[in-house]
Amino acid sequence: MLRGIRFTMAAAVLLVGSEAMAWSTSPIPGTSAVGHTAQGYAWRDWGGGAWSKWHSVAYSDTTGDVVMVARREANVGFPFGWLPWVIETVDESVNFLNGLSMTIGKEDGTEFIAYVDVDTYRLKVARRVGGNAGNCGVLSQWDCETVDSVDVVRTPSIEVRYDSGIQDYIVYVVYTTETSAGVRSLKHARKTGGNPWFTGTIKANTNQIRLASDAIALDGGTPLVAFAESSVGVQVSRFVGPSLGTWTTTLIDANGGGYASMDARSLRREIVYTSNNDLKSASWSFLTGNWTVSTVDTAVQGSYLSLVIDDAFNPQIAYRKGSAPWLARRGTSGWSTTGTVTPTAAGYNPSLQLDTHPATDTAILIHMNSNRVMHVTDE
Fold it and tell me: Between 20 and 30 A from 296 (CA), which of 50, 101, 149, 279?
């Protein structure tokens, strides 16, 4: 059932060095008892000055382990801005949710969500089809299908690429598994259009792996995944092919941990992660093929991060520090950090997207407060 609710904007103060900036932070109406979160953003230019854009947030309602989406679309008329939030149920059949990831196809704004039902050992992917034509329930807007089923499946990350040849999306999912005998693996699944899912193993017999919801990135049509493995450190694996199980893995930082977030764009590849309480960035050079690690900030809280490379090919990072969501940007003079002042403890499970239309690269931070109410902070 859909319901649209307009939210009230509340002022927030952010500091960049000695400079004060005015942002707005507001709860997303209808969200409470929120668990995992992930968001996606896309816009389309229809030509002749007509355009549309979508901003969606996938989350779990922990009162019933229901997969939900909060969505807002742009108001293209005056006044410009976002229309009210609409809440939509994706899948009510989940028994116990462990991790979800969301992406939006840039071609037409189609939303995809990967999530794990731990009790039934299933990795699932939901695709929004609209028109009450989905199979996720009666009059559902979503199609849901099982990708893989093993003893234990955890923490997926999803990305999609539109293929003009087949006029449909290629869907990539990375995830971790564990058998009843305790054997852990990092795996990859791919689906091309309406074809079946195919799976392969990226790394077998691993230690425990931390995989972020935005751990996967596409370098053109080549998937890469960043992850932290206990007793090994932060690594990146790149698909070599042609077999789905043929990957090369590079160690980035033996001291790295947390949930590594990755993005790739043009000739840029970037990974962010935590090492103890430090926020670290690893940048790849296409000239040397090497990764360079730098410290972005210190005394950060938690290990959940979110990374996006902007239109200027500079990385931006959402993270938590001082009981609030923070944003770090790298420019020509290095890294700058921005912290919000919120009325209650917030910044849990931060997720970052950039509103790129009209050519502004303004940040959208999704995060939870201590009462598990989801908030949006707009630049």
Answer: 101
